[in-house]
Amino acid sequence: MEPLNWPAVIVGTILAFGLGMLWFGPVFGKAWARGTHGIIPPDRPPLAAMTLQFAGTFLLALVIGTTAQTHALGTAIAVLLVVAILQLAGGLFSQKSVAAALIDGGYILAMGSIMILAQGLL
User: Fold this and answer.
1) Hey, CA dihedral for 82, 86, 101, 57, is it positive or negative?
2) For the chain, how far is it from start to end, CA to CA, in angstroms?
3) How far apart are CA 116 and CA 16, in angstroms?
4) 51: number of CA atoms within 13 Å, CB side?
5) Could you tell me the sign of the dihedral formed by the alpha carbons of 71, 73, 79, 82, in that order?
6) Rg (CA), the chain
7) What global pTM score does this model have?
8) Cβ atoms of residues 5 and 69 within 8 Å
9) How many of the other CB atoms lie within 10 Å of CB of 20?
10) 61 within 8 A of 115, measured Cβ to Cβ
11) Of 95, 111, 99, whose CA–CA distance to 30 is shortest?
């Protein structure tokens, strides 16, 4: 097996995490908040949630990197679709609006796309 492409894993993690700040901020933040039972952004950054999000983002980048290493792009895409669909289902089950649930699921697909691009370009 080839060695893992660590620069792509790290860049993919950082870019995907940064996208989340835009995705749930100025891009879709208001629509997401309205559809998530009117959640109000906290006064201070939710450090525990952000730490877990970063860890999960890194682990997803690691999975994408591992599939790139074994030339299993189909597996990477399947993983992304599974996670996005489960995220969407969880959002709908918790009675978020369809828009908020799609914003959540769409973010997973956008994250994965960034990670796959990082693997292909770096």
Assistant:
1) negative
2) 18
3) 11
4) 3
5) negative
6) 15
7) 0.91
8) yes
9) 16
10) yes
11) 99
Amino acid at 92: L
Structure tokens at 34: 């309205």
With left for phi above 0 and alpha for psi between -120 and 50, is residue 5 left, alpha or beta? beta
CA atoms within 13 A on the CB side of 89: 6
For 69-113, what is each residue's pLDDT tens digit?
Answer: 989 999 999 999 999 999 999 999 999 999 999 999 999 999 999
Instruction: Give the tokens for residue 79.
Output: 């993983």
The tokens of 35 are what?
């559809």
Q: Helices 47-69 and 6-22 sit at what angle, rounded to 10 degrees?
A: 140
100, amino acid identity: A
The token duo for 89 is 């289902």
